[in-house]
Design a protein that fits this description.
- The protein is an alpha/beta fold and 324 residues long.
- The chain has 2 domains: 2-121 and 271-323, Medium-chain alcohol dehydrogenases, catalytic domain (Quinone Oxidoreductase, Chain A, domain 1), CATH 3.90.180.10; 139-262, NAD(P)-binding Rossmann-like Domain (Rossmann fold, 3-Layer(aba) Sandwich).
- 29% of the residues lie in helices and 26% in strands.
- It is built from 10 helices and 15 strands.
- It has helices at 42-49, 114-134, 153-162, 177-183, 196-203, 221-226, 249-254, 265-268, 272-287, 304-312; strands at 2-6, 17-21, 30-40, 64-71, 83-86, 97-101, 106-107, 142-146, 166-171, 187-190, 209-214, 228-236, 259-261, 295-300, 319-323.
- β11 (209-214), α6 (221-226) and β12 (228-236) form a beta-alpha-beta unit.
- α2 (114-134) packs across α3 (153-162).
Length: 324
């Protein structure tokens, strides 16, 4: 018998219920995966609260790693005994074992642990597409990265530096400054919506940055727009403070012919080929020492509510892992 977290409806952490679940025989194209590590991400919290689409009643979680113990008809890319990870739907990662589409599994190299994969793949692929596809960061690029001391920021900052960028990191509190500096930021600013853009312009000789990676949302939108150079790009990809307000098209003109995008991991891993290529890039960056899987805390699956509370309250200083 497996264990899984089930939600009957959205709400606070009390809706996360641990239940028994039968071990299932995989159907065509599926595997049964016995999980050893499960990643916890801000999107999970948003879905639990009802702020992002989630089919209910149902499971939660989009990232995990473990070992294949059974394969269905037509599966050829993995076999029983393989160590694998994943970072996309279908949801249901908060479980000791689960069915999963074989084509969306990523084989783990010998030098990458299950915990590293569960801490890294979802956030790593996010960092990879943001830095290489959403805006092609390269030598001389000036970037502003919110959450520079958090789990995603600790991947984006060193990767952007490796690509040749000058990185201005933004943190929510002074206690996070040292962590953002250790990640490689050239400058670190403590967020204040009233002063951030002015500080950014001072650091860039009045020009502004080429691209802003804004995971905060509502409270940071105006400051982010005002931090950009003419024809700069605002990448709004998170909503920790709530969904950003609508932007009047004319505002983009008056602030310097700016660009705005709202990307998603799903749109950047739409095909199996693209997904596998991005995952391979992440694992290669890990093995090359460009990025690291920084695990802040491990929780038993039964303590998932505490993991969500720590993430939601901003206590975490790296990746959170559930252990079945």
């Amino acid at each position: 018998m497996a264990k899984r977290i089930v939600l009957q409806h959205s709400g606070g952490t009390e809706v996360l219920q641990l239940q028994d679940a039968p071990v299932q025989q995989p159907g065509p194209g599926e595997v049964w995966l016995e999980q050893t590590a499960i990643g916890v991400n801000p999107l999970d919290v948003l879905q639990r609260k009802g702020g992002a689409p989630l089919s209910l009643p149902g499971g939660l979680g989009l990232e995990g790693a473990g070992r294949v113990t059974a394969v269905g008809v037509g599966v050829s890319n993995v076999q029983v005994g393989d160590r694998v990870g994943y970072a996309t739907g279908p949801v249901g990662g908060y479980a000791s074992g689960r069915l999963y589409p074989a084509q969306r599994l990523v084989k783990l190299p010998a030098g990458v642990s299950d915990e590293q994969a569960a801490a890294l793949l979802f956030k790593g692929i996010t960092a990879q597409y943001l830095l290489t596809s959403t805006y092609p960061v390269g030598p001389g690029t000036r970037v502003l990265i919110y959450g520079a001391g958090g789990a995603l920021g600790q991947l984006m900052v060193p990767w952007a530096k490796h690509l040749g960028a000058t990185v201005i990191g933004v943190v929510s509190r002074s206690q996070s400054v040292a962590r953002a500096q250790a990640a490689g930021c050239d400058h670190v600013l403590v967020f204040d919506a009233a002063t951030l853009a002015g500080e950014v312009r001072e650091l860039t000789g009045g020009q502004g940055v080429d691209v802003v990676y804004d995971s905060v949302g509502r409270v940071s939108l105006e400051a982010s727009l005002d931090s950009l150079r003419p024809r700069g790009l605002l990448v709004s990809f998170g909503a920790t403070s709530g969904a950003p307000a609508p932007i009047e098209v004319g505002t983009l003109n008056t602030k310097g012919s700016l660009y705005v995008t709202r990307p998603s991991l799903a749109a950047h891993t739409r095909t199996d080929e693209e997904y596998q290529a991005r995952a391979a890039d992440v694992l290669a960056a890990l093995q090359a020492g460009i990025i690291q899987a920084r695990i802040w805390r491990r929780y038993p699956l039964a303590d998932v509510a505490q993991a969500h509370e720590d993430l939601e309250q901003g206590r975490s200083e790296g990746a959170l892992i559930l252990t079945p």
